[in-house]
């Protein structure tokens, strides 16, 4: 599953948005909720996969 940008790349972007929102007193909302889940996917060895891996990981681990 390597079409598109990697989860690692997407998480880097998430981190920037979460930090920017928090530094302005804004709630990062869904990104803040998805970020730990994305880290679990990376920790499971799928960081190079595209963001669709989050769905697969969720379905496999619910």
From TrEMBL:
InterPro entries for the chain:
6PGD_dom2, RedAm-like_C
One family name in Pfam for this protein: RedAm-like_C
Domain NADPH-dependent reductive aminase-like C-terminal, residue spans? 3-56
Query: What is the designated name of this protein?
Result: NADPH-dependent reductive aminase-like C-terminal domain-containing protein
Q: Which species does this protein come from?
A: Amycolatopsis alba DSM 44262
